[in-house]
Write a structure and sequence with these properties.
alpha+beta, 9-stranded mixed β-sheet, 19 strands, extended, disordered N terminus
């Protein structure tokens, strides 16, 4: 029997899940325990699906029909509730079919395969749990500020099926249910005898349940991270930074930006209060545009908090930073941050907080430096591979002219990337110019005269986001050979493609092994 959906509600089969006591007499004590845990899982799953249905009947429908919330607000509160109901109804239906096949009053022989299969299709929980905090916040705000709305929710919650629980309690149930699956499955697995056909599927189901919990937790963290980055964007005035800084975006080479730590600290010399934000690519020190009180970071990131912060100094890139303690045995919670030619002497409220800051800055710095090293090593290894090529191409990137402006001041910080297949060379960056002169030399091994292509791409070096593209040009090695016939090296002017302006000047010298 397949589930029947009517007006958003799903009709469940009614059945008794309890095995006949007489059928258990012949079972071992271990198997009786196993059947008890199976019964507990199925019974709680049925009750959970009933709770999901209650939310649609008792809360969703009247709230939607009342017109008190618009479509966006309803979506924010309930997210994808019907998808959750569909997932778990399918699970209950599968368990019902298995029970029916084995005999209504007989012990359940196999359950792990069903759990493993159905838990693989519960991705809707990742979205719901990630967004649920925003829905709860909206519900709380409306309830606190609108007595009429509060009374409306109280009235519809008097339905006997709610058992005195408000909507906010029901909205927590999906997260609670997800975290219970590994516990239920572990209990069943521990009571399943070695050699039992269900052990393998149960182990697989446990892996899926734990993986789902991990994905949900990661989704919640990512959503919280995204929300906090947006808060910082709206509450921090980025003064004195040439490059536009978008917090909730990709970093230059570390993937999405993450907020790793934040809190209050002080300059030792002046005792100036600073609010620090540690990201995976830089440390940002800010100060309040006007004094404010905050009893904790949760309140700092609250939408009710309208504090405005200003950058105290330009962001401190973590691949250029050194953190150290002036005296590790000192009781003073002081530490130093050295960045190029500047040293910040900072103080936290206590030793524990100082330890946390120092550890997290060091760890993030090491990760940044290691990522850059891997990138350099990969490029070097590609160049260092010994090849039995047919020749070599000597390339000198002389200069580029009339490049596209990559910065608000009408300038760029351009560098050049020259590649041939996996072989890659990168020039130095020249700051604040649209006409860089590199005089950059590189050498490529030629494998196939008619397949190899020299590619030259120019980028704007950014600190806080992926480098901007300023143009590309390509020239086949076969074309170079034709042009260099009996001429030695040649200098070429190449137009940059995919951009409105720009050209690059190169000197090329092709040397084929064994050629006369």
């Amino acid at each position: 029997m397949s589930p029947l959906e009517l007006n958003g509600l799903i009709e469940l089969p009614s059945t008794s899940w309890c095995a006949d006591l007489n059928s258990l007499d012949s079972l071992s004590s271990q198997e009786k325990k196993r059947q008890g845990y199976i019964h507990e899982l199925i019974q709680t799953e049925e009750r959970y699906v009933e709770d999901l249905q209650i939310v649609l009947e008792v809360f969703y429908k009247p709230m939607s029909e009342s017109g008190r919330l618009n479509e966006a607000e309803m979506s924010l509160i309930f997210v994808n509730w019907k998808e959750l109901l569909a997932c778990n109804t399918k699970l209950v239906q599968a368990l019902h079919d298995r029970k029916k096949t084995g005999g209504e009053k007989m012990p359940v022989q196999m359950i792990g395969d069903i759990l493993a299969s159905e838990l693989s299709h519960m991705q809707p929980y990742i979205r719901f749990c990630s967004c649920q905090i925003n829905g709860a916040t909206l519900l709380q705000t409306r309830t606190d500020n609108e007595p009429d709305f509060k009374n409306f929710l109280k009235k519809i919650a008097t339905d006997y099926r709610c058992k005195g629980m408000p909507l906010s309690s029901f909205l927590l149930k999906p997260m609670q249910r997800i975290t219970r699956y590994p516990l239920h499955i572990k209990s069943i697995l521990e009571s399943t005898a070695e050699g039992h056909a269900d052990r393998g599927p149960l182990k697989q189901a446990l892996e899926r349940a734990e993986e789902l919990c991990q994905q949900v937790n990661e989704g919640v963290r990512e959503k919280e991270n995204s929300d906090r980055l947006e808060w910082i964007q709206n509450h921090v005035q980025c003064e004195g930074i040439i490059e536009k800084l978008t917090f909730n975006s990709l970093t230059n080479c570390l993937g999405p930006r993450k907020l790793l730590h934040s809190g209050k600290m002080y300059k030792v010399k002046s005792n100036k209060e600073l609010w620090a934000f540690l990201f995976n690519d830089f440390l940002l020190l800010t100060h309040a545009a006007k004094q404010f009180t905050s009893s904790g970071l949760d309140k700092l990131f609250s939408n009710k908090n309208n504090v405005q912060l200003k950058t105290y100094k330009p962001p401190v890139l973590l691949n250029e930073v050194l953190v150290k303690l002036p005296d590790p045995s000192s009781d003073e919670p002081i530490f130093h941050i050295s960045h190029i030619d500047r040293v910040y002497v900072l103080k936290t409220d206590n030793i524990k907080e100082r330890t946390s800051w120092v550890h997290k800055i060091k760890a993030a710095s090491e990760e940044f430096i290691e990522t850059e090293k891997k990138k350099r090593d990969k490029a070097y290894q590609a160049r260092a591979v010994k090849t039995s090529g047919i020749g070599r191409l000597l390339v000198t990137i002389l200069e580029a002219t009339e490049l596209k402006a990559g910065k608000p001041n009408g300038k760029s910080n351009p560098y050049c990337e020259v590649t041939m297949g996996p072989q890659i060379f990168t020039s130095r960056t020249i700051n604040d110019t649209l006409n860089p002169k590199w005089n950059f030399n590189c050498q490529f091994h030629i494998k196939d005269l008619y397949q190899d292509v020299l590619s030259i791409a120019i980028f704007e070096r950014d600190q806080f986001s992926p480098d901007d593209f300023l143009g590309r040009t390509e020239i086949p090695v076969a074309t170079i050979k034709k042009e260099l016939e009996n001429k030695g090296s040649v200098t070429r002017r190449l137009l940059l493609h995919e951009v409105p302006t720009g050209e690059v000047w190169v000197r090329l010298d092709l040397q084929l092994f064994g050629s006369k």
